Amino acid sequence: MTIYIDIVLIENLIMNYIILCATSIIMKLKINYIRIFIGSLIGAIYAVISYMSTFEAYSTLVLKIILSIIIVYISFNPQTVKKLLKEVLIFYLTSFLFGGVAFSLLYFINPKSIISQNGVLVGTYPIKMAILGAIIGSIIIITSFKIVKSKVSNKDMFCNIEIKINGKKVKTKAMIDTGNLLKEPITNIPVVVVEHTLLYDVIPKQILNNLENILGGEVDNISENIKKEYILKLKIIPYSSLGKQNGMLLGIKAENIVIEKDEEEIKNDNIIIGIYNKSLTKKGEYRALIGIDLLNE
Predict the structure, then answer these.
(1) 229-252 pLDDT, tens digit each
(2) Full-prediction pTM beyond 0.70?
(3) Are strands 256-261 and 264-268 parallel, antiparallel or unpaired?
(4) Cα-based angle 99, 102, 104 (whole degrees, multiple of 5)
(5) C-alpha 275 chain-centroid distance
(6) Do residues 265 and 276 lie in contact, with contact meaning Cβ atoms separated by under 8 Å?
(7) Widest CA span in the chain
(8) What residues does 267 pair with on adjacent strands?
(9) For the chain, which terminus, N or C, has the lower number of CB atoms within 10 Å?
(10) 3-class DSSP state of 183
(11) d(C-alpha 180, C-alpha 158), whole Å
(12) Which uninterrupted H or E stretch holds 92?
């Protein structure tokens, strides 16, 4: 049976590319198509070399693991070892699922000639079948992860945040609100809603205790020094909620916030704090609301 090396290269390149794209979608990573192409090409070249080589060293488990780490690192450029290991794990899970789908398709089409050389399957099955297997595998695994992520437990609905304003910091527990898509209308910067009493140590009480008056344009109760320092920094944020369709929040840009979730820290320097003049809960279980999109940045 004649095996064309270019076909082996192209099939593995396409499969690797789809697997890496599916991995990036699952991990919610920004897709860099050039980096993913390079990573896919490295994997495809290895498959060709492994198929052609008579040395078993090219198909050892250690070499395959090292190659996987190199491919993932080149494709996604993770900044920490922990993120790299997570991405390698998802890469393997995706690959295993694709392998299962591919074997199932091979069973149904029953190709007459399939051979395995150093772990590389080649034969007369069409390249369209390899692509179809990758697409089906992508749909299955991406849909499965979305279903699993949608079933979030109560524990997963909370995180700790640290807010820095005027060089001072406050910490609190925040609820992850999937419906919080609030953004400042002019700059389109995401808004984190925080109880006003939590900010007493970082923003003057004259402002925090007169939110409604400031929103109405009444600033007589505020000293001239505070007016000069803060009035131009304050922002008006319109919002709608159950029972209040045309609400307004006073906001101020934070120097940064740090979100602590699942032993990871996510720092964001582009956040506006929406100051809420009431309590978010009766028992004080949390004192801030953040949008789920902030956890994916």
Answers:
(1) 887 888 888 887 655 667 888 999
(2) no
(3) antiparallel
(4) 110
(5) 27
(6) no
(7) 90
(8) 258
(9) N
(10) strand
(11) 14
(12) helix 81-109
